[in-house]
Amino acid sequence: MADDKNYTTSFTVDQTPEAAFAAISDPRAWWSGEFDGDTSKLGDVFTYRYKDIHYSKQQVTELVPGKRVAWHVVEGTLNFVEDKTEWAGTTLVFDIMRKGHKTKVVFTHVGLKPRVECYNICSDVWSSLIQESLRQLIEIGKTDLLELDASSA
Fold it and tell me: Using CA atoms, how far apart are residues 89 and 26, in angstroms rounded to an integer?
């Protein structure tokens, strides 16, 4: 059923899986907002805040160099939807794989499904963050952090 499908997006870059892993593991470099805490070790807990629109506390649950990064959302508040805790209990997964001389990155937000109220807004924001900011960081080693605004919903 299409309503049960988690949000996913992917891209391929002319870089190594290690370069992709390093970029993903440093969300401060590609995800605009305020961070507190570390993201470099398994079990690390960090918080993310974007203005008064989004707050989440995430735990690093998978960290396989050159292959996978996963962050589980322990707490979350979205101020633009009725159920402000929609993100709580979801997981952000980045799968990294070598494809010839290139690297493919597949991002899946497990639990962000079309039936969830924030799906359209959140998937638009993820598309920009993943397809633009993260991709650019992996490709050229830097990015212009995008100012994303979910309050227009």
Answer: 22
Q: Return per-residue pLDDT of the chain as tens, 153 residues.
A: 556 799 999 999 999 999 999 999 999 999 888 999 999 999 999 999 999 999 999 999 999 999 999 999 999 999 999 999 999 999 999 999 999 999 999 999 999 999 999 999 999 999 999 999 999 999 988 766 554 444 433
User: Does 150 map to a domain?
Assistant: no
Structure tokens given for 145? 């952090």
What CATH number has the domain bearing residue 60? 3.30.530.20
Question: What pTM value is reported for the model?
Answer: 0.90
Token pair for 138: 């992996």
Domain limits for position 113: 2-144
